[in-house]
Please model this.
Amino acid sequence: MFATQNLGLRVKKCLRNALVSPILLSVVLAGDARLIDKLRRDELLPLGSRIRMRLTMEYARSEDLNTCLTHLLESAGNPTLMSEALKTTLCDHAAGNYRALTTMAGQLLTVAAERNLAQLDEKLYFEVFAPPDPRKRRVGATRS
Model:
């Protein structure tokens, strides 16, 4: 609860500052803990000191990812586009990362649109993300 209140206060302060002083450019930097470490380097310290607001996100629980995915599907106007089994599979394979979740979902959506599929399911997931079969020869590969 306290973390949520603290975040709310930080957002309000940032918005108040935005209204008082004109912002010429807003940039969102996204990354893991390595980004924060790199911004502490001497050559990047001036840049790091100009960042007004920081929101550090930890790995998301599978339930949180599922809630996000459900919200995105409802907002897009098709809450039944993905089967529940597929949503669970995507959330389990996203490794707690919202970006990985939405990237995989976007790849599935692209393939489904190409195939004119009305609903996405686990079968499509395994077709799209199956590891390459090492028994199949690569095109252009020759033996001497």
